[in-house]
Write a structure and sequence with these properties.
The complex is a heterodimer of chains A (about 325) and B (about 220).
Chain A (H helix, E strand, L loop, with lengths): L2 E10 L2 E11 L4 E6 L5 H8 L7 E6 L2 E2 L5 H8 L2 E5 L10 H11 L4 H14 L15 H13 L5 E5 L7 H18 L2 E6 L2 H7 L2 E6 L2 E7 H6 L4 H11 L14 E6 L8 H9 L2 E12 L2 E11 L2 H13 L3 E4 L7
Parallel strand pairs in A: 3-8, 3-9, 6-7, 7-8
Antiparallel strand pairs in A: 1-2, 1-4, 4-5, 9-10, 11-13, 11-14, 12-13
Chain B lengths: L1 H39 L12 H16 L2 H7 L1 H8 L5 H25 L3 H9 L4 H35 L6 H11 L4 H31 L2
Classes of the chains: A alpha/beta (about 325), B mainly alpha (about 220).
């Protein structure tokens, strides 16, 4: 199911939590929405998932407008979507299997049908035979698996993941993301993933929207955004990801500091050496790394260029010509 | 002699148990819906799923007023109600009427407090799945709060045991009645002592069973 947001707005007092968001979330994809805390992600997901009504704007699921439904229609429509949460939000009064059964119970599905379907879902999330387990005896990863099974019980066409991996360790996060991706393909789901972790976007999403102060500042294919991020927020997210931010060392106060990004076509060429040879520039590389996204390589390098301003200019130009994205890094002391 | 005390105490104990049992049942019947209503009509950030500020304020005030009445006075005020329902103001059955009505606001607050402890995230999840308000209350809120509700009911029963003894002073029957009529008015301190001991034992037993039940429910989670 395709999701379309048109100029969504939601205020809390004087705070514009969501301030004119328009997005087109294509069907059958994993779509990431990333933002720092306070960027408006949580409000946005509540608006998109019909938990809250927007002050202005429209939410469309396919051809159906869902932001202005009556109480009864709202309940009907909510039963067609699935949602998982940071804190899993499982019912502690129910066993794992009873948790999965809940959405089917409220739709008044027949008992034996619920039983078969629950077994199917437990197998789908890799927890066969754990149906009778009390929720508190499960690990975080297992809890999220049960939550996923519960969200998928009524075969939704959309799955919302609200910081679904934020409470999990990196390894469990990867396994949960792998599961979500696998299920997305199997069930042709549209998955909307709200997160503050770039790793999640990198590992699981096809497209991403970057949210800042209630607005979308950047949107596109994950591979494009990693290769050439445009907004400051995105760059910041990426620098956190590559772990270079804190290791920048100044060569001289007069020269600039640059972040170079190499996309897949430029990663296998000796560009730096070539620039050195032709312009006489001296590079002081302070941090570097390579990432793999969907089997493509992306290189990140943070460096200073010397020995003088003239050479620096030439070197930057040549780098740009070679297909490298060059950004001036603003260091904290300068800002 | 001793067998007479025994007979008196046994009879009164049964009356007390009967009184407490029925007033627990009736105060729950009145207090549970009231407690649920108090909680669900509260503000959204307090966990209310159907915020109704005016209704909530009115209910809350009524409950507070009823709760601030000294029990003995409330019993007297409620005598006409007992007369209206049963045609009499004396005896255990009349006491049940007053005890139930007097305990209902207490029960409502206890229930409300228990429901407030339920994780709001769980309620949000239930809502996101398309639960009706009724389903949220019956299938999520109350079951999630059950161990705490059991503790609340235990507290209610213990309170009612104390109240029922007070009901004895206005001719309500039971152990309180016995202690007043024999122990106080006829200076039979042995009867008084026996009545007090039985009341202590009753409270202890209720507390013990309630704790066990509540912790067993928690252990299963």
């Amino acid at each position: 199911m395709q999701i379309r947001l048109e100029n969504l707005k939601r205020d809390y007092g004087s705070l514009h939590a969501v301030d004119g968001v328009s997005l087109n979330i294509p069907s059958n994809t994993v779509y990431g929405i990333i933002g720092r805390s306070g960027a408006g992600k949580s409000t946005l997901v509540r608006l998109v998932s019909m938990l809250e009504r927007p002050d202005e704007g429209e939410v469309w699921y396919g051809d159906k407008r869902v932001d202005n439904l009556s109480k009864k229609e709202l309940i009907e429509e909510r039963r067609k979507i699935g949602m998982i949460f940071q804190n899993f939000n499982l019912f502690s009064s129910r066993t794992a299997a009873e948790n999965i059964a809940y959405p089917m119970e409220i739709c008044r599905k027949p008992k034996d049908w619920i039983k078969t379907r629950t077994e199917e879902l437990l197998a789908l999330v890799g927890l066969e035979g754990r149906g009778n387990a009390a929720v508190s005896t499960l690990s975080g990863g297992q809890k999220q698996r049960i939550a996923i099974a519960r969200a998928l019980a009524c075969e939704p066409s959309i799955l919302f993941c609200d910081e679904a991996t934020s409470a999990l360790d990196p390894q469990t996060t990867r396994s949960i993301l792998a599961l979500i991706k696998e299920i997305q393909k199997k069930m042709n789901l549209t998955v909307v993933m709200i997160t503050h972790q770039m790793e999640v976007v990198r590992d699981a999403c096809d497209r991403v929207a970057v949210l800042e102060n209630g607005k979308v500042v950047e949107e596109g294919l994950v591979s494009d955004i990693f290769a050439s991020p445009k907004s400051a927020v995105t760059k910041d997210f990426l620098s956190n990801l590559t772990n270079v931010k804190d290791s920048i060392v100044k060569l001289s106060d007069k020269t600039g500091h640059y972040t170079l990004r190499f996309s897949s076509s430029t990663t296998s060429e000796p560009i730096i050496s070539r620039v050195t040879k032709e312009t006489g520039a001296l590079f002081n590389i302070v941090a570097a790394g390579v990432q793999y996204i969907e089997d493509k390589k992306y290189g990140v390098m943070v460096l200073d260029i010397g020995p003088d301003g003239e050479t620096e200019k030439k070197a930057v130009e040549m780098l740009k010509r070679s297909g490298v994205t060059v950004e001036r890094t603003v260091l904290e002391e300068e800002a | 002699m001793n067998s007479m005390i025994f007979k008196l105490v046994a009879e009164s104990t049964l009356q007390t148990i009967e009184m407490v049992f029925w007033s627990t049942v009736f105060s729950l019947i009145m207090g549970l819906p009231l407690g649920v209503l108090l909680h669900v009509t509260d503000k959204e950030d307090q966990g209310g799923i159907i915020p109704k500020p005016v209704l909530n304020e009115i209910l809350s005030r009524i409950v507070n007023i009823l709760r601030s009445f000294p029990f003995l006075i409330l019993m007297i005020v409620l005598m006409p109600v007992a007369r209206f329902i049963l045609g009499t103001t004396i005896g255990t059955r009349a006491s049940v009427v007053s005890l139930s009505i007097a305990a209902a606001p207490f029960v409502a607050r206890v229930i409300e407090t228990s429901l407030k402890e339920v994780d709001p995230g769980v309620i949000q999840a239930a809502k996101a799945m398309g639960s009706t308000n009724w389903q949220i209350i019956v299938k999520v809120m109350l079951p999630e709060a059950l161990p705490s509700l059991v503790s609340g009911v235990t507290l209610t029963i213990i309170n009612l045991i104390g109240y029922s003894a007070m009901a004895g002073t206005i001719g309500g029957g039971g152990l309180g009645d016995l202690a007043i009529r024999y122990g106080y008015q006829r200076f039979r301190s042995d009867v008084m002592l026996a009545a007090v001991i039985v009341i202590i034992v009753l409270v202890e037993v209720v507390q013990f069973v309630g704790n066990k039940l509540s912790s067993r429910l928690l252990a299963k989670r």
